[in-house]
Amino acid sequence: MTETVHIRGSLRNQLAITLVGGAALLAVLIFIIVRSYAAQIAQQGQDDILGASVTSILDAAVIRNGAIEIDFPYASFSMLNTESDDRVFYAIYQDDKLLSGYPNLPRASVSTGMESDFRTELFDATAIRLATASRVLIGAKLRTNITVSVAQTQDALSGTLNRISRNVGLFGTGFFLLTTLLSVWVTSTTITPLRRLTNSVTRRGPQDLSPVVRHVPAEMAPLVSSLNNLMARLDQSLKQSEDFIAEAAHRVRTPLATVRSHAEATLHRVEREDNRKALRAMMRAIDESSRAAGQLLDHAMITFRADHLELHKLNLVDVVSDLVTRLSPIAEMKHIELHLHGDMSVVVYGDPILLQNAFRNIIDNALKYAPSESGINIFVHAKPRPTVEIQDQGTGFPPNKMSELVARFSRGENAKDTIGSGLGLTIAQDVATAHKGTLTLSNLQRSGACVTFSF
Q: Of 409, 406, 396, which is closest to residue 442 (Cα–Cα)?
């Protein structure tokens, strides 16, 4: 009976999902880090240009005749030109008095002598980057503080960041797709040794319990070791079962044969009819018990050997001829003749012990049900496929129960007065199945049963 395998997920899918998920997370982190670093670098570039513009304006401020004069250098604003034509704003204060520029431009408080202050503000509903610096001018009768603020919109910076984001996004997508393909390849490569081990074990026949000697990764070594230990224990258990069957067959048959011989000897010495009748009943019971025990052990042996076939090159004619020779004395006692017909040589590959057992049970069944002064014909043919056919001249099989006769302990209605266990045809059927053959029951047109064993 095959146990249901409870499947919970796929190791390959779990490994692939883990790798692909890690790749997706790494791609997102790369995008965030690269874009943040690029934004920082781009912003630093704009701040440097704004700071240079503020410094150039402050450098142009002088005190002449007691008044502040600022001669704007051309480069102060030309250096702020961008491809996006960003707007530029400025404001110049003397102390708290606006000298020139946009009065509404946000004003940052900067201590005199400190480096430029940079911040992002909102002006006229537009985000701007504002740079502010302050310087003290000293004249003959004047000491004043000049503060310069220069601001610029960030359209060019946004465009640059968008291009960087797009390129980084494409790079991240390519990285993710490449990593996904690599993940599929890695998972397939990782699972391959396990698949090879599975195929190696699956291709084995039931009789192959040898250890697995394939090279496997270190992580699979405990599994292979456990599998080898299991097969070693199973092989030992099967050998013990085979030895037990052989020993049991000997120990059961020998005492029963001894008891029967004593009962038969006693029968010849007893004169009273009731005692002789009791001894005959005892002998019949012993015969039935002996046959049932023997066939039960034979069936157990065949069930075991069916999974451990020892195939040899055999000539079916020789196998059947040997059985005919050994069973001829029994047939002669019942005044039945055994006739062997067919080809001179029919070569097959099979287990000789199982085949002899199967043919012996079929012929024995024919001997039990064939009438006296009749014959049993045994045909051995090689074509169209190797076949052994055994025909008797008895009453035949019950037509309505013919398919049931190969079941264990199943007997026909005409078998009530015949010693048997109902295992003969079952044994023959199991042997045929083990050799990938068929056992067919049929009735002859004139009279009698026919059993066909085909390979």
A: 396
Our count of domains for the chain comes to 3
Domain assignment present for 450: yes
For 410, the token pair is 């199943």
Distances from the Cα of 338 to the Cα of 316, 323, 393, angstroms: 16, 10, 12
Q: Helix %, strand %, coil % for the chain, to 5?
A: 55, 20, 25
Range of the domain at 321: 310-455
Question: For residue range 405-421, what is the model confidence (pLDDT) as tens digits?
Answer: 766 545 555 545 554 45
Please check whether residue 410 lies inside any domain of the structure: yes
DSSP state of 113: T
For residues 426 and 244, give the distance between their C-alpha atoms in angstroms, rounded to a whole number: 22
pLDDT in tens, 218-257: 777 788 888 888 878 877 776 776 667 666 666 666 776 7
Residues 286 and 316 in one domain: no
- Tell whether 269 and 406 lie within a shared domain: no
Is the pTM value of this prediction over 0.85?
Answer: no
Residue 189 lies in a domain: no
